[in-house]
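Appendix C reproduces, verbatim, an entry submitted by the partner laboratory led by Prof. M.T., so that reviewers can inspect both the input and the predicted structure.
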Amino acid sequence: MRQTGDTDPSTITLTTPTLADGAEVYRLISQCPPLDVNSQYCYHIICEHFSQTSVIARIDGDAAGFISGYTLPEHPDILFIWQVAVSAKARGRQLATRMLEHIICRRRATAVRFLHTTISPSNIPSQKLFSAIARTFKAPMREREFLAGEVFAEGHEAEVLYEIGPLQYSQ
């Protein structure tokens, strides 16, 4: 018998976000520090304009995870992951990994060969997530300085660029 709040992976659905998901994604991101929270309008736009490079995870119909990403216009083979959010009730279930693999495999048909993201030095869970993805897709991972903390207001940490690829897809 399933209990309230149970996050059995069989109850998790991964779908393409829509414009209507923007407010719910905004609330989810707001509850996932240390993520930077953008305006609600921004999340409506992301869910509409970047739906094919983003994913929303639901547990029993409620947003439990969200990843936003986009392909670089000048390099359509690079998928840049902007934010990864997992609600407190869904942590420890490999949800971020499942969502990221879902996007990568969905984008395989469009020739995505590289995955990029930025991660602050103190965000160990994200570092582990992207290191695991590099291993899964048998791809080298490089790190390089990207944005110094001084460019941000209010003491934001530096952001390190993680470059993974080329991705090796299983046949």
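Residues 23 and 40 are 6 Å apart (CA to CA). Additional entries are available on request from the coordinating office.
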